[in-house]
Amino acid sequence: MLTIKIADKFIKNFNNKISKIFLFFVLMAIASYSFHSYANVEKNIRYEVVFDAGSSGTRAYLYQINKDVMKITPLFDVEKKLPLEKVDDIKTELINPMLGEIATFLLQEHQIKPDEVVVSILGTAGMRKVTESQQKEIYVRAKEAVSDNNFKPGEFRTISGQEEGVYAWVDVNYLNGTLEKKKTKGIIEIGGSSAQIAFATDKTKHQDDNIMSIKINDINHNVYAVSFLGLGSNDFNLSITEKSEKDFCYPKEYNENNISGNFSLEKCSAIVDSILTQFPNLKKLTQNKEFYNSEFFAISGLYQTLNFFGMKDEDKTGLTNKIKDLCKKDYSDIVIYSENRDKYNTFNKCANAVFANELLFNVLNLPSSHIKAMKKINNTDIRWALGYAILSNKPNG
Question: How far is CA 215 from the centre of its chain?
């Protein structure tokens, strides 16, 4: 009996050891798999900063990019009201403080060092007004500043208006989940110096120079994109102030900048139309059937204008009535109205609204149901910089 008990005990101990050894190897296998899976995920995660060097200021956006599944997540952004082309010391006034904030965020929130992050600086309409030699000099200094901050230099150039329109189109449809659907959204964007219009088309670049062909997630898109330098809100308002009857585009009681406000919708509309006729390519859009078959998001400055007047789903009658109701008031009343809305350049709001009204419904003749003002999609701000990040980070590219 004693011999049998000893044998049983030996067998139990042996089995326990075998079980422990087996468990050890199972856990090691799981740990090894998890480590390699994590390493593979981390290898395909990258961080990129895109500078939007616009005519009214410079903004930098930090993105986390998963190239395997083409997922781009906005993490952080910083802005300075300093246009790149107007800064004397690009490094100390602009690049250093902006990248300093981004570097701090990366280290604290993601334990990422600057030398792991690519930085691209892209100029838009403001930089398009600068000579090529001046642009080259500005970008050389900008690149040096990026390197001095230990970030990886990416692209440093001025993008065309067509590219800006396409990037905004990609951004909107990525956020809206329509990039992989047959029916995409078009965009009408008004910036500080230029305006962009972009929409999908079945035609190809060989048929029209305004068409850009792009490929995302193995899906081809042909995007008709046009840009109008001078149709940004700042430039357009400057054009209005050069007219002898400019007073009719500004509210009563506004008496600054050589303007004595005396708003008249009819007379201001005539002034706006006289400026829009200087852009004949706008009418060319109206000859495109696909333009009228598209639904558009009004973004950037156009969104700001329509939102100020309480417009969401736009229609000509509604916007016209809102302009009449608000712009007949004294300037002081409009300032009070703006307290709960957008306070930036309140004196220009009526002129901007007439511009939007004439552009959308008289020149482009858009059906009312085809335009909607949008600032965010799925709780993310609309920015062409994200569209650029998508196109410059193809999966496995």
Answer: 19
> Which structural domain, as residue segments, surrounds residue 315?
162-381
Contact yes or no for 376/162 (Cβ under 8 A): no
135 and 51 fall within a common domain: yes
pLDDT, tens digit (0-9, with 9 covering 90-100), for 57-83: 999 999 999 978 779 999 999 999 999
Report DSSP state, residue 313.
B
Report the CATH number that the domain containing residue 50 is assigned in CATH: 3.30.420.40
Tell me, yes or no, whether 309 and 374 share the same domain. Answer: yes
pLDDT tens by residue, 361-371: 999 998 878 89
Q: Are residues 249 and 324 in the same domain?
A: yes
Q: What is the pTM of this model?
A: 0.86
Q: pLDDT digits over 97-120, tens only?
A: 999 999 999 999 999 999 999 999
DSSP symbols for 244-292: TTGGGGS-BT---TT------HHHHHHHHHHHHTT-THHHHHTT-HHHH
